[in-house]
């Protein structure tokens, strides 16, 4: 399938072919999504003697976590939980880690141990939720909750049980009803169905394979159980990029993509939101998730700013380079760059036009611009200062959308001769620096500028 030019299609196919040969991957499928549709897909290698197709299933590992997180956020939006709730509020009797919040579990900032107190859960049959919860001890929390990023598979086992208890059904049934079915992801399942790839380990020093075990992870399944296809994962990529299909409010999805914790400190190239991994690569800010289970690797990344996503699924335990999906994005940037939308005039009310132009916060010059739908933009003229956009919130008030004033109120204050000043959460903006005719807090020296 291709909806891109011949040059882009050739470059994407070659990049996938190089990776499959270099990393010795038994099989790999990949796709590029733009504006909600798959514009390119490719495959290399063999599954049961034939090249895999967009309908071939692979394990997606921890991408399962992002699917579970969507249902948790639906519960939040329904008012059934708050992200600040301690998990023990929803799992009564939890013997340990009960003070960790739902939001901290979603963002891996709760300090929980990375793995459950069982055998290596990825390679052995799982235990029931009751047994998992009963086995948690004093060492379940390894770091002060909220202090740092510490990836926890156990945390998503707890979130899966939270979903099950609120919905009164197994977490996977809730997931199917509330996310997979509405998005048309009918080939995403907890257990494999044909045709599916077999998971392999590739010998490090010889071109031979070792089949990897596969099982039902039971209580830990919400951390990495699901199987999917490149066609279904493309639908999820479109969802993450903003085509929510009514499953989530767009504002909730945007909240999931916001960084909660940074994984690599000052570098800030990777972090985590609410159930979503985040990355900054080559000027792009990406959201999605990687997946790893014995015999399988997968990744889905999207850049919501231009509604572009990339993904791959492979049946190998290790070896696929982390740059494969981002290199695919680079191919799109080189061969299929976005064209800006044509500028068109937008009518603006006279009262809004009267607000445009320079304003001053003390001596600092700002400029007010009118945006579509009666929104406003207040930005420093010199590039140094606090910039924010505002959306209408009343006859003479606007609500901060981003930047320093996000969530704060901008109020247009009027006097006998019209607008006297702007009040932005107690900060006064005037038409000239420290206008003596405006109620500047602290007053203005009566002798003026000198």
UniProtKB/TrEMBL annotation:
It comes from the Bacteria. Residues 19-319 form the Beta-lactamase-related domain. Signal peptide: none annotated. Pfam families: Beta-lactamase, DUF7586. InterPro entries: AmpC-like, Beta-lactam-related, Beta-lactam/transpept-like, DUF7586. Residues 349-431 form the DUF7586 domain. PANTHER family: D-ALANYL-D-ALANINE CARBOXYPEPTIDASE, D-ALANYL-D-ALANINE-CARBOXYPEPTIDASE/ENDOPEPTIDASE AMPH. This is CubicO group peptidase, beta-lactamase class C family. It comes from Sinosporangium album. The lineage of its organism: Bacteria, Bacillati, Actinomycetota, Actinomycetes, Streptosporangiales.
């Amino acid at each position: 399938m291709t909806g891109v030019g011949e040059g882009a299609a050739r470059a994407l196919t070659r990049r996938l072919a190089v990776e499959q040969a270099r990393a010795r991957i038994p099989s790999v499928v990949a796709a590029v999504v733009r504006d909600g549709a798959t514009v390119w897909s490719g495959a290399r290698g063999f599954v049961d003697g034939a090249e895999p197709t967009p309908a071939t299933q692979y394990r997606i590992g921890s991408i399962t976590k992002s699917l579970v997180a969507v249902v948790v956020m639906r519960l939040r939006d329904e008012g059934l939980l708050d992200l600040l709730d301690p998990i023990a509020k929803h799992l009564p009797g939890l013997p340990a880690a009960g003070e960790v919040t739902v939001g901290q579990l979603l963002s891996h900032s709760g300090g929980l141990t990375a793995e459950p107190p069982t055998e290596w859960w990825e390679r052995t049959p799982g235990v029931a939720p009751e047994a998992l919860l009963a086995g948690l001890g004093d060492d379940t929390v390894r770091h002060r909750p909220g202090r740092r990023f510490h990836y926890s598979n156990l945390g998503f086992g707890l979130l899966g049980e939270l979903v099950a208890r609120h919905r009164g059904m197994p977490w996977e049934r809730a997931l199917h009803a509330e996310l997979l079915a509405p998005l048309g992801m009918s080939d995403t399942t907890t257990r494999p169905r044909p045709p599916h790839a077999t998971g392999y380990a590739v010998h490090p020093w010889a071109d031979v394979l070792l089949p990897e075990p596969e099982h039902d992870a039971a209580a830990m399944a919400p951390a990495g159980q699901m199987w999917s296809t490149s066609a279904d994962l493309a639908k999820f990529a479109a969802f993450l990029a903003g085509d929510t299909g009514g499953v989530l409010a767009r504002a909730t999805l945007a909240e999931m993509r916001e960084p909660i914790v940074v994984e690599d400190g000052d570098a800030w190239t990777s972090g985590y939101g609410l159930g979503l991994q985040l990355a900054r690569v080559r000027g792009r800010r990406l959201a999605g998730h990687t997946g790893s289970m014995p015999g399988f690797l997968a990744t889905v990344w999207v850049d919501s700013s231009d509604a572009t996503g990339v993904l791959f699924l492979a049946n190998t335990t290790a070896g696929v380079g982390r740059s494969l999906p981002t290199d695919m994005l680079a191919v799109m940037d080189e061969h299929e760059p976005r064209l800006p939308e044509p500028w068109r005039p937008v009518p603006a009310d006279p009262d809004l036009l009267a607000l445009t132009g320079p304003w001053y916060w003390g001596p600092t010059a700002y400029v007010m611009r009118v945006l579509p739908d009666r929104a406003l933009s207040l930005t420093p003229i010199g590039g140094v200062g606090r910039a924010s956009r505002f959306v209408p919130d009343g006859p003479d008030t606007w609500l901060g959308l981003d930047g320093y004033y996000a969530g704060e109120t901008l109020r247009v204050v009027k006097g006998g001769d019209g607008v006297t000043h702007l009040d932005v959460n107690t900060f006064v903006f005037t038409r000239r620096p420290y206008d003596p005719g405006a109620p500047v807090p602290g007053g203005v020296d009566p002798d003026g500028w000198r």
